[in-house]
Amino acid sequence: MSLPHPLLYPLASAAQLAQTPCRADGIPAWLEEDLRAEGCRLIQSAGILLGAPQVVMATAQVLFQRFWYVTSMREFSVSQIAMGALYLASKLEEHIARMRDIINIFDLLLSRLRYSLAHPTAPPESFKYSPMSYYSNEYYTYKDELVIAEMQLLKRLAFNVQVQLPYNTMVNYLNVLGLGRVEGIAQKAWGFLNDALQTPAYAVYPFPTIACAAIHLAAREASVCLPEPPEHEPWWELFDADLEDMEQVCGWVLRLYRRQDEEERELVQNLLLGGRREVRQWLDEVEPKAST
């Protein structure tokens, strides 16, 4: 099977996978993955409130994930890059969101998260949001951060911001396997593709591998046996996928469903809210302990 032009899905190099900029700065792998996932959830929530189509939110999450293979969270704030990725994706997918709307929605989401951390036992409906003034210093700070984030995404990704999503490919694969009409399989696989956006999968593996991993997870959950071709070779080889790569994608997706420790979750949320300053402060506190 001939694959599309490689520019359609630029992937991280072996060196970037072995040592991401975040890990080079001392951020543990589990924390980097959790912050990536939290940033993607922020993009998804903001996109839903904006009324953006799923393709915009998916493209933004892929760009967001790619960014952290060339830059450390010690240099840029997760929430700011998430905001810039959503704004850039809205332009790429020709569903442009107003800068002011993105800023207000991110401020709303971050304010709500800040409130929930300060009042862990308070019911969600007790949160009251007060929009910032259009002429406030806070608004112009947000605006500067959004412009810088978009510029840095373009610069550090070398303007290679094409994104190829695997949704249509996954549906075609199901039809080839004779599972296109099996109840629930396509919906489950579609859901796993959405969940995989919160992982580094789209920045590491080509989309045929991600599509096969989603089918594999959906078939297991629905207890459906995947058919074998006449040659009795593994079905994924029909689509130029590798089992080890598929299992890595499946592992990342399944990790999202684990029960997260409360302390760990609070740390991730505080680092998300505090941005690069909070990340630097945390690293400065952790490094002396590690050395002893």
UniProtKB/TrEMBL annotation:
The protein, known as: Cyclin-like protein
One GO term of the biological process aspect: regulation of transcription by RNA polymerase II
Database matches in PANTHER family: CYCLIN
Organism: Calocera cornea HHB12733
Matches recorded under SMART domains: CYCLIN
Pfam families recorded: Cyclin_N
Residues in Cyclin-like domain copies: 41-155, 168-258
An example molecular function term from Gene Ontology annotations: cyclin-dependent protein serine/threonine kinase regulator activity
